[in-house]
């Protein structure tokens, strides 16, 4: 795990990053600024239980590609989940909390993930572990109105204007952050790369 000091505000941004792209960097930049974070842990997961792992590039490649596009020193690319053999986000967050007392963490995810969040293993536990920041993504702006997670935890939603205070709040607490959006997607990039190789 990256080094942190007590009192820091740290964002947790996990994904397969297969491949990482400018849209991911935009989410990280928005989170750093709007949530007043000291760091973001860009957590490259070994695999995703909800996705096809056959299309997954090797972990080392995804780590290197992530480092190549994240020049901001506050963004710490890490793949510690592989070392701890953690499979589910709920377990990752429990591990982080146990090993980093005195640090204020926020779980960060794109609005497109919010739509299917209720399919994640122990998703309610995730919402109850750390505050959550949902960053707007193209085509997913209204997901915070329709998703089961948003409806279930509607009482815990805070105003976007208070986003800079989110990390210090006790979970459950979440907000939806609007801002610049990138239409890039890892799935589309992989499709284009496949077509280029075949051509």
From TrEMBL:
Transmembrane segments: none annotated. Its EC number is 2.7.7.18. Pathway: Cofactor biosynthesis; NAD(+) biosynthesis; deamido-NAD(+) from nicotinate D-ribonucleotide: step 1/1. Keywords: ATP-binding, NAD, Nucleotide-binding, Nucleotidyltransferase, Pyridine nucleotide biosynthesis, Transferase. It catalyses: nicotinate beta-D-ribonucleotide + ATP + H(+) = deamido-NAD(+) + diphosphate. It is an enzyme of class 2 (transferase). Residues 12-191 form the Cytidyltransferase-like domain. Belongs to the NadD family. Catalyzes the reversible adenylation of nicotinate mononucleotide (NaMN) to nicotinic acid adenine dinucleotide (NaAD). NCBIfam families: nicotinate (nicotinamide) nucleotide adenylyltransferase, PRK00071.2-2, PRK00071.2-4. This is Probable nicotinate-nucleotide adenylyltransferase. It comes from Aquamicrobium segne. The gene is nadD.
């Amino acid at each position: 795990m990256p080094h942190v000091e007590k009192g820091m505000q740290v964002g947790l941004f996990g994904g397969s990053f297969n491949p990482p792209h400018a849209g991911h960097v935009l989410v990280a930049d928005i989170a750093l600024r709007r949530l007043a974070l000291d760091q973001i842990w860009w957590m490259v997961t070994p695999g995703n239980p909800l996705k096809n792992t056959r299309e997954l590039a090797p972990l080392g490649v995804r780590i290197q590609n992530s480092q190549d596009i994240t020049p901001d020193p506050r963004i710490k690319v890490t793949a510690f989940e592989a070392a701890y053999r953690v499979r589910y986000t709920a377990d990752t967050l429990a591990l982080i909390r146990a090993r980093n007392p005195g640090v204020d963490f926020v779980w960060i995810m794109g609005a497109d993930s919010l739509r299917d969040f209720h399919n994640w293993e122990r998703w309610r536990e995730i919402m109850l572990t750390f505050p959550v920041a949902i960053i707007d993504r193209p085509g997913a702006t209204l997901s915070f109105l329709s998703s089961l997670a948003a409806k279930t935890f509607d009482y815990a939603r805070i105003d976007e204007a208070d986003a800079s205070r989110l990390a210090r709040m006790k979970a459950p607490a979440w907000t939806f952050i609007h801002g610049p959006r990138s239409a890039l997607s890892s799935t589309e990039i992989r499709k284009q790369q496949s077509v280029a190789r075949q051509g």
